[in-house]
Design a protein that fits this description.
heterotrimer, A mainly alpha, B alpha+beta, C alpha+beta, B: Cytochrome-c3 Hydrogenase, chain B, three-stranded antiparallel beta sheet, 8 strands, C: alpha+beta, Alpha-Beta Plaits
Chain lengths: 350, 373, 161
């Protein structure tokens, strides 16, 4: 269902041009809208991170530019835009310049699949979750390329670590998603949300869903390269890791994409476990766009947990990271899928 | 077996990585040249001298009174203790007897310095391992100590409070109350440190068994201070050669025998508890008296050589002076604990990963200006 | 079995850590009670330094624009790094008719000063004292070279020279 405002625009465009042209123009408009969402989300999350970090660290965080420092990140972004793009002389220039776009494009593509509310959902296909996981794994190529093309040993080590980390933890993210898909019975994101009308999946699936959620949170932290899995950047070891040689806007692409990825991971968690845009007990389901509010609150909640991790835990070492994945998370996940399948088969879910 | 597999089956090219002098993990300007195989350390070379200020040479053209303020700039985290070392040396050479008030105030200041140094170390340790929040928690306590210092000495870092023959000022009237408040505050916060890092599973896995050095090797390398005490070497100067008021107090030397990074970590945590207990024993016992013994305007040491050892926050800090009877020393030498400790870095970290090197460097607790002088 | 106990114990230690940071987060979010930082340029009016704070060396002047320095240059000699230059001159004292030292310029190189306090210690007249001002930032280092005696100032009469 498209809401009135969108139908109005659609009809307006139809009156001005042919149907194909209107269709293309609408796509462009939506794309532009998503670019805007991307930028705003990135900046807002950076602000939130710094503010939250401040409170964790007995500080106030940014509080000078604008109310509560809200415009601080905008000022930072303006600074980054105006900065010179530097690079090493011996860098592989083509790949070096190409690399940030892999990250930012995949983040944007994944963003299209996120159901902000019942109405705002750009790309709802029947293999939604599958598409999401496949697209988001392309992003690692960008980080990998950045590490390789910078011609800097620190970047290279960072890039190599990413490769190892992503390949390992993609598995856990995928497996915990599969666990929930077994319960939901569909890959389409809107349908997954719809079936939670009578209860969130984390309650429906109880024990296996809870285990899947914990695994997803751990693997999700690793996927979004945050502490305790920030080996890719690991500022005390590698300086800045893969983006050591990036400056200005090229660096900002990575920075924003990192935070948008955090948003995407949290959104997937919300969709899979906490009923997406649905309000608790359906109190506001009849009001249009109310889903946006509930979705936002839930996502911020999950993001806060990620931030809580980040500002509490020390970092893993690379071999411990792999041990955790292959010796702990993966076996747990496999058992958990079987458990979930049994539960669904025997009808033990709520 | 593991090594063989790596070298035979997965032949990789060894390469060099230049870590520092501008690097977040090297605590200043220390340059490490790492020979790496993938992420595995094959060799660690240290390159010093980036912050060499020829302080020892400067001492040769300074009078003994002027030398004291230069020692602030060595190990800036234990400046009281460094000041005291020079003061004690000259007092010993001239047979100046200081009263108990001076001794006790000096000892309290030393222990406060030790706590503030260890607290900073704890915060930076967490940061090196990746837990950024610990740094601010460490600084919370450090700020309180700095306030105590600032109120009494007038400065927060380079206090220059100990003079030859006493103290620059008498303690401030709020001093005792502030120190008592701090002790009460820190007793509540120190268990929090344990909960946040000491017990943390990730933290323990990062440190346990990493950077092992045996007792024999520790002695052979001349390690000292908490770094050596983590390997079971009893080397606390406060126990071996008590100075100031350390013979009046009852405290335990923090020794662990595991020899790994975690043992060195625990030694420092335990030292903070011991320092607290020393302060508690002394704070109510400050006797009345002069805070300064009258000394001559121009101090001349008798000809000969003099040595004074003190236990700084990083270990055995030694001062050596050779005098030819002039008002300037002929030779003035500092024996910095960090230098000896740093030499063992290669031994400790060979065969481990880059991340381990950062952790080990943190548990050695190097202060580069102390090493380079 | 140690496999599972390790997971459970490990998770417990992680949760204890999170409880500590979480406590501080919520306390600071709602009350700002544990915030330890100072909002520096904002509190510049209320900021009070400790009375012994070593901000800079100053020459004491009383309300009649008189100081205690008789240019004996002991402070200059005590200074380890040549931060002080005392320029004095001699003139005939109208009362006693003897030659007497007086201060022309007391030059202070703040950029070289290490705040060791030896000059204040050395001064027999207690003419020098600590100033609490710490706003010394300048774009030009020559501005850090200061003349401590105020223009037209004299030594307090009756002070022995």
């Amino acid at each position: 269902m498209i809401l009135n405002i969108f139908t109005d625009i659609h009809e307006l465009l139809l009156g001005l041009m042919s149907e194909e042209a209107a269709h293309i123009l609408e796509l462009v408009l939506i794309a532009a809208g998503y670019l805007g969402i991307f930028a705003i989300l990135g900046l807002l999350l950076v602000w939130l991170e710094r503010r939250v970090a401040g409170f964790f660290q007995l500080r106030l965080g940014p509080n000078r530019v604008g109310p509560m420092g809200l415009f601080q990140t905008i000022a930072d972004a303006l600074k980054l835009v105006s900065k010179e793009l530097t690079g090493t002389v011996k860098a592989d220039m083509q790949l070096y310049k190409l690399a940030p776009y892999f990250v930012i494009t995949t983040a944007l593509m994944s963003l299209a699949l996120i159901p902000f509310s019942y109405e705002i959902h750009a790309f709802d296909i029947n293999i939604g979750l599958f598409f999401l996981t496949s697209v988001s794994s392309i992003g690692v190529i960008g980080i990998f390329l950045a590490g390789w093309a910078s011609n800097n040993k620190y970047s290279l080590i960072g890039g190599m670590r990413t490769g190892i980390q992503m390949i390992s933890y993609e598995l856990s993210v995928g497996m915990s998603i599969v666990t929930m898909v077994v319960l939901a019975g569909t890959l389409q994101i809107s349908e997954i949300v719809e079936i939670q009308k009578d209860g969130w999946l984390i309650f429906k699936g109880h024990i296996p869903a809870l285990i899947a959620f914990m695994v997803f949170m751990i693997a999700g932290t690793a996927e979004s390269n945050r502490t305790p899995f920030d080996l890719v950047e690991a500022e005390s070891e590698l300086g800045a890791g893969f983006h050591t040689e990036y400056s200005g806007m090229n660096f900002a692409y990575y920075f924003l994409a990192e935070f948008v990825n955090l948003f995407i991971i949290s959104s997937v968690a919300v969709v899979l476990f906490f009923g997406g845009w649905l309000s608790p007990f359906g109190i506001t389901d009849s009001i249009p766009f109310a889903g946006l509010f509930w979705f936002g609150i839930k996502v911020v909640g999950v993001i806060f947990i990620f931030m809580w991790f980040r500002w509490t835990f020390p970092r893993f070492r690379i071999d411990q990271l792999l041990t955790l994945e292959w010796k702990y998370l993966l076996p747990i996940n496999i058992v958990n899928i079987v458990l979930m399948a049994l539960m669904v088969w025997l009808g033990l879910t709520f | 077996m593991k090594e063989e597999f790596l070298t035979d089956q997965l032949k990789t090219q060894e390469y060099f990585l230049n870590m520092g002098p501008q690097h977040p993990a090297t605590h200043g300007v220390l340059r490490l040249l790492l020979k790496l195989d993938g992420e595995i350390l094959r060799n660690v070379d240290m390159d010093l001298g980036f912050i060499h200020r020829s302080i020892e040479k400067m001492c040769e053209r300074d009078t003994y009174k002027q030398i004291v303020h230069l020692t602030d700039r060595l190990d800036y985290l234990s400046s009281h203790i460094n000041n005291e070392a020079v003061a004690l040396l000259v007092e010993k050479a001239l047979n100046i007897e200081v009263n108990d008030r001076i001794k006790i105030i000096r000892t309290i200041m030393d222990e406060l310095t030790r706590i503030s140094s260890h607290v900073l170390w704890w915060g930076v340790m967490g940061m090196d391992i990746g837990a950024l929040t610990t740094f601010m928690y460490g600084f919370r306590e450090r700020e309180l100590i700095n306030d105590i210092f600032e109120e009494t000495c007038g400065a927060r870092l380079t206090m220059n409070y100990n003079l030859i023959g006493g103290l620059r000022y008498d303690i401030h009237e709020n001093f005792v109350k502030r120190v008592k408040d701090f002790v009460a505050h820190f007793k509540k916060k120190l268990p929090e440190y344990d909960k946040l890092l000491t017990g943390n599973i990730i933290f323990r896995k990062r440190l346990e068994g990493i950077g092992y050095i045996s007792k024999e090797d520790a002695i052979a390398y001349g390690l000292n201070g908490p770094t050596a005490r983590g390997s079971g070497v009893s080397c606390d100067i406060r126990k071996i050669h008590p100075y100031s008021a350390y013979d009046m107090v009852d405290f335990e030397e923090a020794i662990y025998t595991e020899g790994d990074s975690y043992a060195r970590y625990k030694v420092r945590i335990k030292e903070m508890w011991q320092s607290l207990s020393i302060i508690e024993q002394l704070i109510d016992k400050i006797p009345e008296g002069e805070y300064k013994v009258k000394t001559k305007a121009v101090i001349k040491l008798p000809a000969g050589s003099f040595v004074q050892r003190v236990e700084s926050a990083r270990g055995d800090f030694g001062v050596f002076a050779y005098s030819d009877g002039q008002k300037f020393p002929y030779r003035f030498k500092f024996r910095s604990p960090g230098f000896a400790n740093l030499t063992a870095l290669n031994k400790m970290s060979k065969g481990l990963k880059i991340a381990d090197l950062v952790a080990i460097l943190s548990t050695i607790d190097v202060v580069v200006p102390d090493i380079d002088r | 079995m140690s496999y599972f106990s390790e997971i459970i114990n490990g998770t417990k230690t992680l949760l204890t850590g999170m409880r500590i940071t979480g406590k501080y987060f919520f306390v600071n979010l709602f009350t700002r009670r544990d915030v330890i930082t100072q909002q520096y340029p904002d509190n510049i009016d209320t900021l009070e330094m400790f009375d012994r704070f070593k901000g800079e060396i100053t020459l004491f002047h009383n309300e009649n624009n008189e100081h205690k320095c008789d240019a004996c240059t002991l402070c200059e000699k005590a200074c380890p790094n040549g931060s002080l230059e005392v320029l004095g001159d001699k003139a005939k004292d109208p009362e006693t008719g003897k030659n007497k030292r007086f201060l022309v310029k007391h030059i202070y190189h703040l950029e070289m000063c290490t705040m060791c306090g030896l000059c204040i210690e050395a001064c027999p007249q207690d003419a020098l004292e600590w100033g609490q001002d710490f706003h010394h930032v300048e774009y030009d280092r020559s501005k850090l070279t200061k003349v401590l005696n105020k223009p037209g100032s004299k030594i307090i009469p009756g002070l022995k020279g």
